User: What shape does this take?
Amino acid sequence: MTQSRRRAALLVVLLAVVVNLPLLHSWYQDQKIASSGKDVTATVVDDRVVDGDQFWLSFTFPQDVDPDQKSWQAEVSEEAYDDAVASGRITVRVADHDPSAYRAEGTVDSRVPLVLTLGADLILLLVVLLIWRYGGPRRALLRAVALGDVERCPPETLLERIGGEDYLIRGEVLELGEGTVTLDLGNRSIVVVLDGHANPVGHQQAAQVRARLVS
Assistant: This one.
């Protein structure tokens, strides 16, 4: 894989982590609640109905569960909502030592985050396939004849004129041929005919060579 493809792939991986992080966090919270949660009776402090079919409750935990007495909320079923409003109480399963990880009785799980995440993942997958297939825009393949041995160098892409048609060329070794070496210059490649000169640099390693462009 070329440097440009690796950079693009790394960016896609980072985007995938960002996109999936909320869903992964939610899954982790659910596991935490299931493994270390306990049922407590929370006090309802507010209730509201949104758009006629979304039933929201705000509640606080006992002080031994949440010393800060923060208000938490959950969307619940209509039945659970009616029971909680009537009694002023609702049963909530909460993780030990972490009041932010909870699940109220009758909680309604929204499918919107899952659908959005899967949609974003599908787009990222298509981007990966395009990167793998095309590797980004590339210009015409260049050709040159070496004026000296190929040498190792720091990772860098360079096509610098020395004089006339003579250039200093630096890039990653894409391919080793019979008497040739192909270097990646980012958005294009160059085939260098060794013309009897040595090449001690291996595949996917950074190399430099002084060469004369022929096409």
